[in-house]
Amino acid sequence: MSKSKRKQKRGATPTCAVISLGCPKNLVDSEQMLGRLRAAGYRWVDNPDGADLVLINTCGFLDVAREESLAVIRQMGELKRQGRVGGIVVAGCMAQRDGASLLEACPDIDQLVGLFARDEIAEAARRVTEAAGGRSEADRLLFAQQPTGAMADDQREPLTPPHVAYLKIAEGCDRQCAFCSIPSIRGRYTSKPLEQVVGEAEQLANQGVRELVLIAQDTSYYGRDLGGGPQLAALLRRLDQIDGLAWIRLMYLYPRDLDDEVLDAIGEGRRVLPYLDIPLQHVNDEVLRRMRRNVTRDQTEALIDRLRERIPGVVLRTTMMVGFPGETDAQFEELLEFVRRRRFDRLGAFAYRREPGTPSDNLDGHLPDSVKHARYEALMETQQAVVFADNTAQVGRRRDVLIDRDIPEQDDAYVGRTSADAPEVDGLVYVTGGGLGIGAGHIVSTEIVASREYDLIGVAVDTPR
User: Fold this and answer.
1) CA-based, 20 to 30 A from 299: which of 53, 151, 273, 438?
2) Same domain assignment for residues 260 and 377
3) What CA–CA distance (Å, rounded) separates 237 from 214?
């Protein structure tokens, strides 16, 4: 372990920078850790250069994510050796997955914090700041068993814009998809009790949050582990009553377990958006079987029909995987045909990558990277045609737009999103304000005047609210 360390000025408030990598679930963990560090006396700074402590919350889901995490850790290690960073704490999925071996790969790490020791982050910081001389490997590890109940996220320091927040309703996953390592990293599915989720949502609304994005590894499974049957519909109806919230968005729904009660809660909600993110992964029955998705093409087609029949104006977002082991040309063409015909409003995709320790890693029929890349490009081109045509059809319509930020280099110009667009992953709307006094967090009726590929351009036409 490198001994070069930036000295904190005596009597000064210690500073902490947070680098959060990976998914929104990881972001919530980062916010919770930052909140606990603040309670312990740390002041957050956005630039790690010069910070007394740098917290890196890593992603360990795919090799590209692990490579990014390693690159960031090594970059912070170089700053530490130059005396420009105090201590380095590494947390998150990669820390949980790799354990002590990560200390060998990155000796500049001062403290490694497992997923379920997240709430002990202040203790990890204390160990770093009070350390003197060499420290044993055991001193640099802080891990815990998965708790029997879900961890609370009620001490968060936001890293998102003040009007947007992710709300984690469960931890872990009980699905056994062949390509996924998340269950082995984040453990079994554990729902937060309904009243706890509602309490956290009310807390966020009181802090000025207008858009609440519900997340879990499998949102549709919510409550089934608590006894008494599914609880997602009941949760949505309770959240729909919280004053201050304007939009409630659902992400990461599994294509099973969406019963009519859930669909009714979405369709009848005042604040629950008719926006459903349902990662389907594929549509061919044999590929789905090898993926261990426990769903068929017929069931998928029937689900889409139900959603479009029962929820007025529903927006469907999905994710597809190409190049899974054994995927034939014909099976990929079946996927393309399905995407063309079903016209998803939003679609993301990724090429299959081998994950050591997962069942799919041992399958036969692994495809060359060139084939996987070509299929990814073909799928995205197919979806691109769908989205560009739909965006062109938006011209001349009025849409409510949630303003995320202004454009500093332009007067009275802003960037926002419609209810059909989730933060970070979907399109944007560039809005001219018309002198209406618009600001971040406002919802404003906007006339769409042009489309630009995945984004829209509009003019505000009414007083923001």
Assistant:
1) 273
2) yes
3) 13
